[in-house]
């Protein structure tokens, strides 16, 4: 039988899918290449809170690991895989798509763990595990919680390789939950300094660059900025935007994560930015928080400088909604739509979480 010619609609769909797949490969290539650089791993291992909290969570939760099979998604230097061995894991599959995979092999040999840790070099979506696993560990969190879209890979491994222990109970995820928060800031110092720069920079030359100030604000408000927030500038209790259950979460939710918020101001001030941070929870009641009130971490906080400042008084309600989705041009970046305001004044702003902000 002769093959029917492909309809135009089908041709266009195939073309779109091919273009999307090619774009994703380019995204992934750049992403994994960046994790082959030693400086990234210096930064993460130097983050004592991050590393010790994972160690404490795994050791306190040893009952989940003793005699079990574990997948470490995005293993990096293999530090979490080795913590799992310390907790009694029978076998750990260290999945790593960057050139660090070769280094994990050397590190596990140096720690006499090569019989317990098997390194799988490749993307989490493409590697084949010899068996299903009881536990998944991963340090997948990015700036603004979801930057770099690594959570999608963790969920893929969960759906394909995590055991279902019975009809009502699945295997275990470390961490098990993740939450994202926001709170308003009054006179964020870095934002103010960068704007005031244009009032001052021309004085030694008897020149006036102040017209640049409005343009600078326009540029700064296009991107999410990673910085340390002074807790004294936070002027309301935080609002929890979401809490993700990593055993139940559907990957499709991450295509467009939406939330509404209401923040009640502590006093009279001018709000010029919103801060965002996250926490993750582990089985056994261990938590890792990146709140401004906690000891600093390499994640710091993510800040959106507002296009329009808000003048508030005590107990003013600041209401808004936010939508977070992968960026169309580069899917590991984030495209964030923000609506915020007080009373009848409502503003809309679109910002990117990308390398310019981070």
UniProtKB/TrEMBL annotation:
Single annotated GO MF: histone methyltransferase activity
GO biological process, one term: methylation
Gene3D superfamilies on file: Hnrnp arginine n-methyltransferase1 (2.70.160.11), Vaccinia Virus protein VP39 (3.40.50.150)
Record's keyword terms, sorted: Methyltransferase, S-adenosyl-L-methionine, Transferase
Superkingdom of the source species: Eukaryota
InterPro entries for this protein: Arg_MeTrfase (IPR025799), PRMT_dom (IPR055135), SAM-dependent_MTases_sf (IPR029063)
Domain Protein arginine N-methyltransferase as annotated: residue spans: 177-344
Protein name listed in UniProt: Protein arginine N-methyltransferase 6
């Amino acid at each position: 039988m002769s093959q029917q010619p492909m309809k135009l609609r089908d041709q266009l769909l195939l073309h779109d899918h091919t273009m999307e797949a090619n774009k994703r490969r380019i995204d992934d290539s750049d992403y994994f290449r960046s994790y082959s650089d030693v400086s990234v791993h210096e930064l993460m291992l130097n983050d004592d809170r991050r590393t010790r909290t994972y160690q404490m969570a795994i050791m306190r939760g040893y009952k989940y690991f003793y005699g079990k099979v574990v997948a470490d998604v995005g293993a990096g230097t293999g530090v979490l895989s080795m913590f799992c061995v310390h907790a009694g894991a029978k076998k750990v599959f260290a999945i790593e798509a960057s050139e660090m995979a070769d280094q994990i092999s050397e590190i596990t040999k140096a720690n006499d763990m090569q019989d317990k840790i098997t390194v799988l070099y490749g993307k989490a979506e493409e590697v084949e595990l010899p068996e299903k696993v009881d536990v998944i560990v991963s340090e997948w969190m990015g700036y603004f919680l979801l930057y770099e879209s690594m959570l999608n890979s963790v969920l893929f491994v969960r759906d394909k390789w995590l055991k279902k222990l019975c009809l009502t109970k699945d295997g275990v995820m470390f961490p098990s939950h993740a939450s994202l928060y926001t709170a308003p800031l009054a006179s964020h110092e870095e934002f103010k300094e960068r704007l005031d720069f244009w009032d001052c920079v021309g004085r030694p030359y008897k020149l006036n660059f102040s017209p640049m100030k409005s343009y600078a604000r326009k540029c700064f408000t296009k991107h999410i900025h990673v910085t340390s927030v002074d807790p004294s500038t936070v002027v309301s209790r935080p609002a929890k935007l979401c809490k993700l259950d990593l055993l139940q979460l559907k990957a499709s939710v991450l295509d467009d994560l939406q939330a509404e918020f209401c923040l009640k101001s502590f006093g009279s001030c001018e709000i010029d930015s919103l801060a965002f941070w996250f926490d993750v929870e582990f089985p056994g009641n261990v938590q890792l928080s990146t709140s401004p009130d906690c000891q600093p971490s390499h994640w710091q906080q993510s800040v959106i400088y507002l296009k329009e400042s808000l003048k508030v008084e005590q107990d003013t309600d600041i209401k808004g909604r936010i939508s977070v989705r992968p960026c169309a041009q580069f899917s590991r970046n984030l495209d964030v739509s923000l609506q915020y305001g007080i009373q009848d004044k409502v503003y809309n702003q679109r910002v990117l979480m990308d390398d310019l902000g981070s």
